[in-house]
Specification:
The protein has 303 residues and is mainly α. 75% of the residues lie in helices and 2% in strands. The longest helix is centred in the N-terminal third of the chain and has 27 residues.
């Protein structure tokens, strides 16, 4: 892997870190396997690309993409809580419906952004090499976002949301409005995913109606893989591990696709993804990981 491939994988991993954070909120904190992200990711891209192509400020367009993602998550939780539709089925129904919505938003299967100003256009004025500018900006933005999310999840509302996911009945018995916490979590999670889609479209120069295929798998791989790589003692570490999981996932995929010895081609991406997710699920129970954890615990006792 050369430097350009590494920076490309790092940039893509940081962008999908937003998907990982959204998946962490819904899947790990709220215990809600949300499939809506397969539709909210391209929805954010479609909304942002359409607005930018109509000369709307790219920051405003990205904000509108976040609102659209929050609306998609709100519909899913409404179907689950009010209409009593199973959470997975509700997410599938909304993501399927969003395919048609995205076509309506763009008016065609894809919207190019070539020659348009994006949220990354101002980076050309910074004294940084062009290939480093976007990854550095994303790393700074992701650091700020993780700190803000950690602060939110430590607040009274955030603790109520975590309690809802940990034990819904107990939370309700203590006066927590669990339905409202679910709505807030899914709206926030899908808003993050939609922003990820909006930024991904702006870095790739186009939004496509099919760009959400497999996004949920990447989100799960990042969250599960990050948990296998890092301890989850605090909420801050859990947030950081999700972002690191997304970056490591993209780096491994890029490394696998660039290594000619395996004969892997870009068409084998889904096989690589499935193997990575399976490894992330199995790895924590292997002897190697258990031995490493035992040594870490022993060092703590000795210290």
């Amino acid at each position: 892997m050369n430097m350009y491939s590494f920076l490309g994988a790092l940039e893509s991993g940081l962008l999908f870190g937003l998907v990982a954070l959204g998946t962490l909120l819904t899947f790990r904190i709220l215990n809600f396997p949300d499939i809506t992200v397969e539709g909210s990711f391209p929805l954010g891209a479609a909304v942002a690309a359409t607005l930018i192509s109509h000369d709307i400020n790219p920051f405003v367009a990205t904000g509108c993409a976040a609102l659209a993602g929050a609306a998609a998550g709100s519909i899913t939780i409404y179907m689950n809580v009010r209409l009593r539709i199973l959470h997975i089925l509700a997410g599938i129904l909304v993501s399927v419906a969003l395919y048609s919505v995205n076509l309506r938003v763009m008016g065609r299967p894809n919207t190019p952004l070539l020659g348009q100003d994006t949220v990354f256009s101002f980076l050309s004025h910074l004294p940084l090499p062009s290939e480093w500018a976007v990854p550095v900006a994303l790393l700074v933005g992701m650091t700020v976002l993780v700190l803000l999310l950690n602060r939110f999840l430590q607040s009274e509302v955030g603790l109520a949301m975590r309690a809802t996911g940990a034990n819904e009945r107990m939370a309700a018995a203590n006066g927590v409005n669990t339905d409202r916490m679910k709505w807030l979590g899914l709206a926030l999670g899908n808003a993050l995913v939609a922003v990820g889609g909006a930024l991904f479209a702006q870095t790739q120069g186009a939004a496509d109606v099919n760009m959400g295929v497999g996004v949920i798998v990447i989100g799960f791989a990042a969250v599960i893989g990050g948990a296998a790589l890092m301890p989850q003692r605090t909420m801050l570490l859990a947030l950081i591990s999700a972002v690191i999981g997304a970056v490591v996932y993209k780096l491994i995929v890029s490394l696998a696709l660039s290594f000619d010895g395996f004969g892997i081609t870009p068409s084998d991406l889904n096989i690589v993804t499935a193997l990575l997710v399976a490894f992330a699920l199995v790895a924590p129970d292997t002897k190697l990981f258990k031995r490493g954890r035992s040594r870490t615990a022993l060092k703590k006792v000795q210290s």
